[in-house]
Design a protein that fits this description.
Length: 287
């Protein structure tokens, strides 16, 4: 009689093999995260009892996730979460999955943060930038506003605020449209859509097919939103206030130039962990 596979180790190996066959780069890791997501079993317990039997329903659910991942649906859309700055964020198809690169922006903001600052996060998406900042400065009386054109994205951001027990004011609108006239902030941050439209077709399937197009495409040269945000920012930033952007690694010169032309000083570029230009920051010194 052919024995049916039900030991967790065998199930995991099958999962890895299916993802490898589908050409998924981190097959072992992704198969593991999906197994943990379905069973709740942690690594230590897995190694202690590799022969543990899984139930039929669990096995069925596991292989249905494996099949979806094999079709390039991002892991995070299957597990529903992504870690960022050591915190867990809910994600879905309406928001860009938080990237490790973006931690460079939050780290730069943290270095510049002072107690009582009012912060604005433009194109907030999942809220990961604003909420991790507020959470990490929660003893310092920092207040935060996040805006996005997508109400579906804002629903995710609000859910994340609740998950992390952080207060933030999320508003829907096209860039500064939803900010009161004359309201000025100490710090404006943004990871706007910055992929040049002609490059969109070359992105990996997980990004091209499943991240929201509107969160990525930044006009023909990728600079469309930087131009608009920098131009409008001077009506909403205090004298001495800071503007910080995540940028694509080839955009440092162009974005720095736009900021200087608008009256920003001490404009600096910061690299990410891969050594690529990733953040541009400057101080507004106009009236
Ligand atoms: N860094 C993201 C990517 O390469 C793009 C983020 C953005 O457009 N703001 O997929």
């Amino acid at each position: 009689m052919k024995q049916k596979i039900s030991a967790i180790q065998e199930i995991y190996r099958e999962g890895v093999k299916a993802l490898e066959d589908a050409g998924i780069p981190d097959a072992g890791l992704d198969a593991w995260y999906l197994l943990e997501h379905v069973t709740g079993i942690k690594r230590a317990s897995y190694y202690a009892h590799p022969e543990r039997e899984l139930g039929r329903e669990e096995i069925k659910r596991y292989f249905s996730y494996i099949e979806k991942r094999g079709k390039r649906i991002p892991l995070q859309h299957l597990t529903g979460e992504q870690e960022f700055m050591g915190l867990s964020f809910a994600v879905n198809e309406h928001v860009l999955i938080p990237r490790q690169d973006t931690e460079t922006l939050v780290e730069t903001a943290l270095e510049r943060m002072k107690p009582g600052m009012e912060v604005l996060d433009m194109c907030t998406g999942s809220g990961c930038i604003l909420l991790s900042l507020l959470r990490l400065c929660r003893e310092e009386g920092v207040t935060g506003t996040g805006t996005d054109i997508s109400s579906d994205a804002l629903a995710v951001a609000r859910k994340n605020a609740e998950r992390l027990h952080v207060q933030a004011d999320f508003r829907q609108g096209d860039l500064f449209e939803c900010i009161e006239q004359g309201r000025r902030f100490d710090m404006i941050l943004s990871n706007p859509p910055y992929i040049p439209v002609p490059v969109m077709d070359t992105l990996q399937d997980e990004v091209r097919l499943y991240d929201p197009y509107t969160a990525l495409a930044g006009g023909s040269d990728g600079l469309f939103f930087y131009g608009r945000i920098i131009g409008e920012s001077i009506l909403h930033i205090k004298t001495g206030g800071l503007l910080l952007f995540e940028i694509g690694c080839e955009q440092a010169e162009a974005v720095s130039g736009l900021m200087k032309a608008a009256g920003y000083e001490d404009v600096m570029v910061k690299k990410d962990l891969a050594g690529l230009d990733r953040v541009v920051a400057g101080m507004y010194n106009g009236e």
